[in-house]
Design brief:
Layout (H helix, E strand, L loop, with lengths): L1 H31 L4 E8 L6 E3 L7 E4 L2 E9 L3 H4 L2 H5 L12 H30 L1 E3 L13 H4 L8 E5 L2 E2 L5 H9 L2 E6 L2 E6 L4 H7 L17 E3 L5 H21 L15
Parallel strand pairs: 1-3
Antiparallel strand pairs: 1-4, 2-3, 5-10, 6-7, 6-8, 8-9
């Protein structure tokens, strides 16, 4: 029973945050466009409310209802909010929602959704900022990896460890590394403890595309589960965009195609 109550309170708290942020979006844009907000409530208040407060020289009443199913922001002149048909029958007043231009009315209506989106972006960015990202550094691939026939034909061998592409260090194993490899003129690998330079033909990408057993997308889904967390650079928005594309590159596409660098069965991670 105690566990159930804790989870119920967590659910109510999380929904309350979403509702407050959503309604605050409507509220703040209504105030920006000088539209009167009559009520700003967390939870619904049929018949009575748990708390209410109206500051002096303010047209807005703030409160907390007793029915935890949402909340609302009552805007003057919006029939869906006020349901005051008598007021709607009168001429529009300057402070009413219905007297504003269509563009302002639209911004007031969509502001709640926009604020919820910004909240989600903020929460996700803070998660990445705090816990970082998870990837496999190439330097920890002590056993190297297997390569497909397309890459073996240009000089790669099973067990090679990628080091540099055109003298640019390859730090992490992923789709970015594959792109740099196929677009480079030379790739340096570690083979049997010695560095070896491999020349990459200009049509390497075309070869990968022509190979019926290959795809230009690097296989990362196989090694993801043996990678270990490493603190990512704190570039939040780029990290978010990469994370959104990550599922497509590592789950959906690898299931449809075989990978040019082969299945990474020889990877061993040294923690």
């Amino acid at each position: 029973m105690e566990t159930f109550l804790i989870k119920a309170l967590q659910l109510i708290l999380s929904l309350s945050i979403l509702v407050i942020v959503h309604e605050f979006g409507h509220f703040i844009f209504a105030r920006i466009f000088k539209v009167r907000v009559e009520k700003f409530y967390l939870f619904f208040d049929p018949w009575f409310s748990l708390f209410k407060y109206k500051p002096k020289n303010s047209d807005t009443e703030y409160g907390v209802g007793w029915l935890p199913l949402g909340g609302y922001c009552k805007i003057s002149g919006m029939i869906d909010e006020s349901m005051d048909k008598e007021a709607m029958a009168q001429p529009p007043k300057p402070y009413e929602f219905r007297s504003k231009p269509a563009g302002q009315r639209l911004m007031i209506m969509v502001a709640g959704v926009v604020f919820n989106f910004l909240l989600a972006l903020f929460i996700y960015s803070m998660i990445l900022f705090t816990w970082g990202d998870t990837y496999l550094p190439l330097k920890n691939m002590k056993m190297g990896m297997n390569y497909s026939e397309t890459f073996q034909n240009v000089g790669f061998q099973d067990g090679d460890i990628l080091l540099r592409a055109d003298n640019e260090e390859l730090e992490r194993f992923g789709s970015d590394s594959f792109r740099k490899v196929v677009e480079a003129k030379t790739v340096t690998v570690l083979r049997d403890g010695r560095e070896t330079v491999i020349s990459i033909p200009e049509d390497m990408m075309q070869r990968c595309m022509r190979d019926g057993k290959a795809s230009p997308i690097l296989c990362v889904s196989r090694w993801l589960f043996v990678s270990f967390p490493t603190r990512m650079p704190r570039r939040l928005l780029p990290a978010c965009s990469r994370r959104i594309a990550w599922w497509l590159l590592t789950v959906w596409l690898p299931r449809r195609f075989m990978m040019p660098l082969g299945y990474c069965q020889r990877i061993r991670v040294k923690r």
